[in-house]
Amino acid sequence: MSSRRSRISEEEMNELVSKLQSLLPETRRRGTGRTSAAKLLKETCNYIKSLHREVDDLSDRLSALMATMDLDSAQADIVRSLFRS
Question: What residues does each domain of the chain span?
Answer without folding.
Answer: 10-84
